[in-house]
Design goal:
Elements (H helix, E strand, L loop, with lengths): L5 H13 L1 H18 L2 H17 L9 E5 L2 E5 L7 E4 L2
Helix pairs in contact: 1-2
Length: 90
């Protein structure tokens, strides 16, 4: 929510809290944004692409395999593969 001053910001928050349709629309858009940009798969691909870019730029980075632990997910990727993999634990 945006407000130019504390009073207008508070008014926007009150409107959000009291308007059920607006609340649902903001919630739905927020969930879509998180799913699009912040899942373990998206983060793994971003890290994988960054490491590949570094390795192809002549940098001295050597990282054949990286394994990250995200709570219920394990993410692994290496410079020798084109994609990373994401597995759930258990």
């Amino acid at each position: 929510m945006i407000g130019d001053d504390p009073t207008s910001f508070a008014a926007a928050i009150v409107e959000l809290y009291t308007d059920e349709e607006l609340w649902q629309r903001v919630a739905d858009n927020s969930h879509r944004r998180i799913e699009k940009h912040f899942t373990p798969q998206v983060i793994a691909e971003t890290i994988h692409r960054s490491i590949k870019d570094l390795s192809q730029s002549g940098s001295k980075v050597q990282c054949p395999l990286v394994i990250l632990d995200f709570g219920p997910w394990t993410v692994d990727f290496g410079l020798t593969s084109d994609r990373s993999s994401v597995r759930t634990k258990g």
